[in-house]
Specification:
The chain is an alpha+beta fold. It has 2 domains: 108 residues, Immunoglobulin-like (Sandwich); 210 residues, Glycosidases (TIM Barrel). The chain has 4 helices and 21 strands.
Length: 338
């Protein structure tokens, strides 16, 4: 018998998990697909217990196995153990594997339900910086600040291929640009707009969030634009303090800490969502709440908020910071504890 791993399949849809959105204490039927007459045994493994699955049907190409899980009130995880002769492997949410990592197990959260409007809806994901530049006044400038070893770059040729370290290259896409393309999105039949992170962040992808309270003015509105860009020397080298390279990035500091810019950006986003809703579409935000970056105001490793009015000291700046307990420090060397 030749093992056929490509025929193996299961997921969280109704054919392989029923009900899809089970309630607490419900019984859930779990199914698994394999190549026709290709396996000896399939086990459903949940909570450390192995349950042999029954072959319930087949067609010209596949066999279908079935088992079940009795839910309680807590989230459960499961995976499949597959036997083909003396060969044993496993199947989880990423496919066939030879070892089990719990992170990739299938899971069920009792009483969690997907809203009806999302089922079968057409989603359109937007990486805002690379979508459409609708407001050039908010574009990130060349050398506006120091990020991952170099100054930022403002891309003027929209068709330029991204650089290898393109995380600090900014093409200028923004919320105004998405608003200007709503007719286009609607004509495509889009029902849900899924936005990559939109909160204040130094990167173009914005997964290293700097301030969870506000939309980034670089994709929102900049109404107060003061301060200086970083400077370069005669040979083109960036001039900066190696310990605190962004202390002199005063234009960036103004753009992302001034409340006029932040509140104007939030207001623009409100207007955007209202217009999307008026058209019968919905908006989903990509929330990144499990980590932050060195620019984050709670840490302030980049000294962006140190002198900005209205902000508490970050945990990097002061041991008395209200955010001190958010981070683990190996040394007691404040101020500027690395």
């Amino acid at each position: 018998m030749i093992f056929n791993p490509q025929a193996l399949f299961s997921d969280g849809t109704q054919m392989y998990r029923n009900p899809v959105d089970p309630k607490e204490n419900e019984y859930v039927t779990i199914r698994f697909r394999a190549g026709r007459e290709n396996l000896d045994e399939v086990y459903l493994v949940c909570g450390g217990e192995r349950q042999k699955m029954n072959k319930i049907s087949n067609d010209r190409m596949f066999d279908y196995y079935e088992g079940g899980i009795q839910l309680g009130t807590e989230r459960i995880e499961y995976y499949f153990e597959i036997h083909c002769g003396t060969f044993v492997c496993y199947y989880n949410s990423v496919g066939v594997c030879d070892t089990i990592e719990n992170y990739y197990n299938f899971w069920i959260t009792p009483s969690f339900s997907t809203p009806d409007w999302a089922k079968g809806a057409i989603f359109y994901q937007i990486y805002i910086d690379r979508f459409y530049n609708g407001d050039r006044s908010n574009d990130v400038e060349d050398d506006e600040y120091f990020y991952i070893g170099e100054g930022t770059t403002r891309v003027t040729d929209w068709n330029k291929y991204p650089a290898e370290m393109g995380v600090r290259e900014f093409y200028g896409g923004d919320i105004a640009g998405v608003m200007k393309k709503l007719d286009y999105l609607q004509d495509l039949g889009v029902e849900v707009i899924y936005l990559n992170p939109v909160f204040v962040s130094p990167s173009n992808h914005k997964y290293d969030i700097q301030d969870y309270d506000y939309i980034d003015p670089h994709i929102g509105r900049i109404v107060k634009d003061e301060g200086e860009l970083l400077k370069r020397g005669e040979n083109g080298e960036l001039l900066y303090d190696a310990k605190h390279p962004n202390k002199e990035a005063t234009r960036y500091i103004c753009r992302v800490t001034d409340k006029e810019n932040l509140e104007a950006s939030n207001q623009l986003f409100i207007e955007f969502v209202e217009e999307v809703h008026r058209r019968g579409m919905k908006v989903i935000l990509d929330g990144v709440f499990n980590h932050c970056g060195s620019f984050n105001k709670w840490l302030d490793r980049e000294c962006i908020y140190e002198e900005a009015p209205g902000y508490a000291k970050g945990a990097f700046i002061s041991a008395e910071s209200p955010y001190r307990s958010y981070f683990k420090f190996l040394e007691n060397t404040w101020p500027y504890n690395t």
